[in-house]
Every structure is written in structure tokens, then in C-alpha cells.
Write a structure and sequence with these properties.
- The complex is a heterodimer of chains A (107) and B (335).
- Chain A is an alpha/beta fold and 107 residues long.
- Chain A is built from four helices and five strands, in the order E-H-E-H-E-H-E-E-H.
- Chain A is globular, with a radius of gyration of 12 Å.
- Chain A starts with a strand and ends in a 5-residue tail after the last helix.
- Chain B is 24% helix and 25% strand.
- The longest helix of chain B is centred in the C-terminal third of the chain and has 21 residues.
- The two termini of chain B are 41 Å apart.
- Classes of the chains: A alpha/beta (107), B alpha/beta (335).
- At the A-B interface, helix 2 and helix 4 of A face helix 4 of B.
Chain lengths: 107, 335
């Protein structure tokens, strides 16, 4: 995972509020196959767009309160926060091309 | 991901074997062709949540209890990670891309992924099948907002809810049983009054008092704007409509082979499954098929793996029977 931020119930608001670039939050869990597949793709996109966006992960098993607050009903779900506000929600695992398209406005 | 020598938008090297798909069939074919020193290139697909992702349908399951050799069962994603690692160990190369066009007028045959063209003498098609949807109006809109095709991904979010599972086969009952870990009540909606599922799955479901069977019924409308707020079902014998108060609906009504890519090039039956003859041979020389894409009967991980092995052996023997391309190409022309 390298230096990826792991968000928790306690740190979520602070991290999201403090982000100076759009923050992509990856809602995931160990038991979710599609989440495991999409994780390396996201990490690659974050690496290639360092400075423009940041990636953080939120394990729904460890932080169910946050997942509930944002009405997450399917994982993987990606939410993009800008200036502390939720700007976009992407549901389901996708390939790199599709994700780049979905995230284009932030890149 | 392995990098291949790319020249413009064409990879110059003609491979011996390209494998399309990375479920049990594709990966078993990769293990066998890699061990035969054919250095297979596997297009493993692109991440998705619908069944055509790398690793195939087993990436969306939890416990696999009937794959031989695992006394206590194994998690689907773990089994697939092991198969992939085993193929890589013998030299299989992987591209995490989806093929978007094929031209089987060779050999050599040509395939395209992300605008790049690859050529290969033999191709093994193992693209599998994906879950069917009901085709109701709001289904796409509510996918991920109460409507799901992946119980293992989404069951967690229905703790304490009432939900519905649609279907009457093994996967429907497996999902229904699994979902009772979270949900208070699971309605199993089935269009007949008997189940197709295996006896052991039926017994488990009948014994589970959180599962209520809704026989002879089909969903006809989904309610809710931002999230599923109920399902209208119709009794197919009486025509009577009724409302089910559920916040989740999991669809397990069967599968459709992933063969759109091959329309007009490969022979298919009336349900679009590829038609094989003499083992795994198709109507096109040098193209072979394995796994669910050509199997409308068994559709098991172990039968997919078995047919992947068959396709690898068929491809290897077919390659041996062909005049060696390299000898033809390397005939000196400029002395």
C-alpha cells in the first residue's frame, strides 16, 4: 500500500477537510474481490497524477459509521471530495480507461 | 503487468498462443501452454463488478466447497490468485486489458486491446459468462443502490434489512444462504414452484428460517429514486400483483456467454455459446474455446479448468502440425 492514507471513523473528517487537492476515497473490504482488482489500478492512477489528486482508502469493516453516513451500499465505491465536499461517486469496479474518464474533471 | 515490445500501435512479434480470459479455463490453459514453453500471453480483462473481470466469476464468490483438493473449501478470489501465480511461475505473461476487437481470418490471428494490435498463431477463447439482469426499467439506475449482482460484495450493507434474491438455481440459493448472515429476512423469488438447484443447496435453504420462498413469481417493477424502496412482483399463474418491502435485491437468474466480440466470426448456438467440435476446436483453424463460454450444461470451476487443459493440449498439437512460421519468415531474400 506504500504511503496510502487509511481513513477511520475518527480521522475521516479531518483528512477530508485538510486535503489541498481532490481526495479520492476508495471504500473497500478484504472480502470484496472486485475491490482487490481495482486497488492496483487506482494506485497507478494516483501515482501518475501525483500533485493533482490524492488517494485514500476506507475499509468499511473498520469504519462502518463513515460508510453508513455516505449511504454506501455496494463496494468498491469511490467518492471524490474537494474542499471537504463530496463531488462525485463512482460505483463498481472499472478498468483504468473508464476510471480516467470518470475522474477526468479532477485530473 | 508485463510490458511487451510495442511498435506504434502494433506488437510486431507473432505469439504462439494468446489466451482471452482469466477464469479457471483461461488460467489452466495458461499453466499448460506455459509448461509447454509456448509463452502464452493472457488478456485477463479489465476490472468490473459484473462477472467478466480478471479471475472471472469466482472473484464474486466466497467459499468454493466443491473444487477438488481443498478439504475445507477455499475463497474464490484466493483460488484464482493461486491459479494466476501458478501460470506466472511457468512464464505466462499477463495484460490487464480487455480485447475490444478480433480478426480470426488468419492464422496468424489478430486481436486488439486499447488500440494496440497483437498477432498470434493460436488463440484460446475463455471469456466465460456474466450474470443476466432482469431488464427492468430502474434496474441500471439502482445498481449499487440496492440492486446488486454481487452478494459477497454488497451483502454487508444489508445488516438488519429485508431483501430479495431472484432465481432458483445453485447461485441463487447460495446467495440467499449467504445473505442471511446479514439480512433479517431474505425472500427468494422464483418463477416456478420447484428449484433447479442441487439437493444439498435446497436442503440448506429450506432449513434456513430467514429465507421465505415466493413461488411462481417474477419482479415486474422496482421502486425508489436514490435507493431501492420496494419491488412489485407478479404471480405468473394468477396474474396477481403484490408489493415486497425490501431495500435490497440480488439477481441470480442465470448467465449469458461473453461472445459479443466474436459475432460473425465464430459459430455459436441459439443462446450464443461457442460451438466446439473434436474437443475444443472451433469453426476457425487455430482458435479454441474453453470454459463457460462454450458450456451451457456444467458451468463449474472444475469443468472450466478441465476444458482449459483440453484447449491447451489441442492448441499445442495444432501448432506442432503447422509448418513453422519462423522458418518461412527467415528465408533470406537479400543475398
Amino acid at each position: 500500500m506504500g504511503n496510502l492514507t487509511e481513513l477511520t471513523n475518527e480521522t475521516f473528517d479531518e483528512e477530508v477537510g485538510a486535503a489541498d487537492v481532490p481526495l479520492i476515497v476508495d471504500f473497500w473490504a478484504e472480502w470484496c474481490g472486485p475491490c482487490r482488482m481495482v486497488a492496483p489500478v487506482l494506485e497507478q492512477i494516483a501515482r501518475e497524477n501525483a500533485g493533482k489528486i490524492r488517494l485514500a482508502k476506507l475499509n468499511v469493516d473498520d469504519a462502518p459509521a463513515v460508510a453508513q453516513r455516505f449511504n454506501i451500499m455496494s463496494i468498491p465505491t469511490l467518492m471524490v471530495f474537494q474542499d471537504g465536499v463530496a463531488k462525485k461517486r463512482i460505483v463498481g469496479a472499472k478498468g483504468k480507461g473508464q476510471l480516467l474518464e470518470d475522474l477526468a474533471e479532477f485530473l | 503487468m508485463t510490458e511487451s515490445p510495442v511498435n506504434g500501435n502494433t506488437v510486431n512479434e507473432t505469439r504462439d498462443v494468446i489466451i482471452i480470459g482469466s477464469g479457471p479455463a483461461g488460467l489452466t490453459a495458461a499453466i499448460y501452454t506455459a509448461r509447454a514453453n509456448l509463452r502464452p500471453l493472457v488478456f485477463e480483462g479489465s476490472p468490473s463488478s459484473t462477472g467478466d473481470q480478471p479471475g472471472g466469476q469466482l472473484m464474486l464468490t466466497t467459499e468454493v466447497e466443491n473444487y477438488p483438493g481443498f478439504v475445507d473449501g477455499i475463497q474464490g478470489p484466493e483460488l484464482m490468485a493461486a491459479m494466476r501465480a501458478q501460470a506466472a511461475r511457468f512464464g505466462a505473461e499477463f495484460l490487464t486489458e480487455k480485447i475490444d476487437k478480433v480478426d480470426f481470418s488468419g492464422p496468424p490471428h489478430r486481436v486488439w486491446a486499447g488500440g494496440t494490435q497483437y498477432t498470434s498463431r493460436a488463440v484460446i477463447v475463455a471469456t466465460g459468462a456474466r450474470a443476466k439482469m432482469l431488464g427492468l426499467d430502474a434496474e441500471r439506475k439502482l445498481l449499487g443502490h440496492g440492486v446488486s449482482t454481487c452478494a459477497t460484495c454488497d451483502g454487508f450493507f444489508f445488516r438488519g434489512h429485508n431483501i430479495a434474491v431472484v432465481g432458483g438455481g445453485d447461485s441463487a440459493l447460495e446467495e440467499a444462504n449467504f445473505l442471511t448472515k446479514f439480512a433479517d429476512k431474505v425472500y427468494l423469488i422464483h418463477r416456478r414452484d420447484t428449484l433447479r438447484a442441487s439437493k444439498i443447496m435446497q436442503e440448506r435453504a429450506f432449513k434456513n428460517d430467514k429465507i421465505e420462498f415466493v413461488w411462481d413469481s417474477v419482479p415486474v417493477a422496482l421502486h425508489g429514486e436514490d435507493r431501492l424502496a420496494g419491488v412489485t412482483i407478479k404471480n405468473v399463474k394468477t396474474g396477481e400483483l403484490s408489493e415486497l418491502d425490501v431495500t435490497g435485491m440480488f439477481v441470480a437468474i442465470g448467465h449469458h456467454p461473453n461472445t459479443n466480440l466474436f459475432m460473425g466470426q465464430l459459430a455459436m448456438d441459439d443462446a450464443a455459446y461457442l460451438l466446439t467440435h473434436r474437443g475444443t476446436h472451433l469453426n476457425v483453424e487455430g482458435v479454441f474455446a474453453a470454459g463457460d463460454v462454450q458450456d451451457r450444461t456444467y458451468r463449474q470451476a472444475v469443468t472450466a479448468a478441465g476444458s482449459g487443459c483440453m484447449a491447451a493440449i489441442d492448441a499445442e498439437r495444432w501448432l506442432e502440425s503447422q509448418p513453422h512460421q519462423a522458418e518461412i519468415i527467415e528465408t533470406p531474400t537479400d543475398w
